[in-house]
Amino acid sequence: MKYWIMPACWLIVLVVSPPVAADERSPIRTDQQMFSYTLGYQIGGQLAAQIREGGLDLDPDAFAQAIADVLSGRPPAMTAAQMEAALEMRQQQEKVRQNDAAETGRPRGEAFQAEYSQRQGVVATASGLQYRVIETGEGRSPGPADTVVVHYVGR
Questions:
Q1: What is the pLDDT of residues 35-82, one digit of tens each?
Q2: Which of 24, 64, 97, 117 is paired with 11 by a 20 to 30 Å CA distance?
Q3: pTM score over 0.70
Q4: Residue 77 half-sphere exposure, CB side, CA atoms within 13 Å?
Q5: What are the C-alpha distances in Å from 13 to residues 2, 5, 7, 9?
């Protein structure tokens, strides 16, 4: 009579447990699918690197949907005006971010210039450019048609 308790417990666990999400990706079987996936993965990797490098915060699902819509010939989910407004909004946000970064970086740059100008051998031009000759060369000075090699650090 007590043999039904264990199967009943397992049945309850299975019924009450949330379903495990299955991998929703379609299997890749044909040569065309394999080539398409490979090319998409390579291009996606390059895009992802550029997106990270650019500091963009994108919604991967919306981004992928837009690409799928273009490749499938479907009409866009947004109007041209909506897309333009989204780009303009992002440009304004980026402009504010860059201005904030410039303002916070300005005191550091000015402090560096003040400290660097005190170093031995540093020369300042009328425009504010500062440089230091590490080793004075011998011979004639280069002319307008000559090629020179310089090493500099922008800070």
A1: 999 999 999 999 999 999 988 889 999 999 999 999 999 999 999 999
A2: 24
A3: no
A4: 10
A5: 18, 12, 10, 6
